[in-house]
């Protein structure tokens, strides 16, 4: 009997929490995420797609070089 009461109590608690979460999501408008474009980005025409590909590859190379440079072992000063 105790197990049954514990299970019923758990189910009631889950229902209460679920209803509160649903109300909170509806109040904040997070139920449907919106895609937002940052204000500083200009509209890019379709003809500039090659330009964007080149820029993307260049940025990827720069990040890779920065990570490789950070991973290099640095000489440690002698403890005296």
- Note the total helix count: 2
N-to-C order of helices and strands: HH
Described by strand count, sense and barrel closure, the largest sheet is: none
Backbone structural class: mainly alpha
Q: What is the residue-mean pLDDT, rounded to a whole number? A: 79
Helix content: 55-70%
- Tell me the span between the first and last alpha carbons: 72 Å
| Overall strand count | 0
Strand content: under 5%
Q: From the alpha-carbon coordinates, what is the Rg to the nearest angstrom?
A: 27 Å
Overall shape? elongated
Low-confidence stretches: none
Characterize this entry briefly.
The chain has 80 residues and is mostly helical. Helices cover 62% and strands 0% of the residues.
Please specify the SSE layout and strand pairing.
Blueprint: H1 2-28, H2 49-71
Describe this structure in words.
With 80 residues, the protein is mostly helical. It has a domain at 1-30. Helix content is 62%, strand content 0%. The protein has helices spanning 2-28, 49-71. The longest helix is centred in the N-terminal third of the chain and has 27 residues, at 2-28. The chain is elongated and about 70 Å long.
């Amino acid at each position: 009997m105790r197990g049954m009461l514990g299970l019923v109590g758990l189910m009631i608690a889950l229902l209460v929490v679920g209803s509160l979460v649903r109300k909170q999501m509806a109040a904040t408008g997070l139920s449907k995420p919106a895609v937002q474009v940052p204000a500083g980005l200009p509209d890019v025409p379709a003809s500039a797609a090659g330009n964007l590909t080149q820029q993307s590859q260049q940025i990827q190379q720069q990040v890779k070089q920065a990570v490789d440079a950070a991973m290099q072992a640095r000489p440690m000063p002698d403890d005296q």
